[in-house]
């Protein structure tokens, strides 16, 4: 069986990592046509797999060119395959073989205030178009499956929960890593990520512990949401209390996970929520909001929940967790081996 795989989102955050982690399994079991940035694809596929056809494609996902002017030459190659798999829900016009797509969450439909009315309409169009053109749809949690069903028309199609997992470079544990006196936040500052709640809690804690710092993985100049209260809160802290890492490598991200006292994930909404899982596998305790998806995903993990949106409760839970022993994870509840096997079962 030959499978065409859209690799254009490699290197683009969580979806790119999700695909990168699954590619070795696809390459082992299928003849593959991979299209996207050729250099990036070749940098992540196993060297021993040389049979895969790699086609360079710079057409952006969710673009007019993808919808109306997709490469005819590439479409011909795709349609010579047996099935088409994409780690997201953007599907080029002209694909005639069975499509299997992925919707990780529908946050913009559940929280329309995150974008403009046109932005909501555009996302709903692409989500629904993805469903209409797909034989089956994958997602990463039961919560997301429920929300997809609530917001979109499935037309009796299946939504299959695959879950997510940590990439391989998180699973090789380092020993004897010393903890440093800082809290870690990984994510952007869109309202549903809850950074405002964390900053308020950090302000409470800082009055009692002036040496504790907050490290935010990302670039401060990219943290623009139109929410001036976030900017004012960040600027209200003394210089050096809140640190932005800038764009960093996977190895550097892992180092921050390993050396942080705690990872804080104060989200109001997630489709899965990867940072807590990554932190736990790096030997760092986590404090997370008690939203439904976290209650689902982390029910079997040694996590600390706080009342979502309650900065006072978060401050208390952080203080109570700063000196906890490293978390012990006995069983791998999630793995990309398991994720892939769920997907493969639906493809064949």
**Strand adjacency order, main sheet:** 3-2-1-4-5-6-7
Mean pLDDT: 90
Low-confidence stretches: none
Estimated structural class: alpha/beta
Helix content bin: 25-40%
Helix count equals: 15
Largest sheet: 7 strands, parallel
- Give me the Rg, rounded: 21 Å
Approximately what portion of the residues adopt beta-strand conformation?
Answer: 15-25%
Total strand segments: 13
Describe the structure.
With 348 residues, the chain is of the alpha/beta class. It is 40% helix and 16% strand. The protein has helices spanning 13-29, 38-44, 64-68, 72-78, 107-110, 117-133, 142-151, 168-171, 195-206, 228-236, 250-259, 275-281, 292-297, 311-321, 336-347, and strands spanning 2-6, 31-36, 53-56, 83-85, 99-102, 136-139, 159-161, 182-186, 213-217, 242-244, 262-265, 285-289, 304-306. The strands form two sheets. It has a seven-stranded parallel beta sheet, sandwiched between helices. Helix 1 crosses helix 15 (336-347) and helix 9 (195-206) crosses helix 14 (311-321). The longest helix is centred in the N-terminal third of the chain and has 17 residues, at 13-29. It is globular, with a radius of gyration of 21 Å.
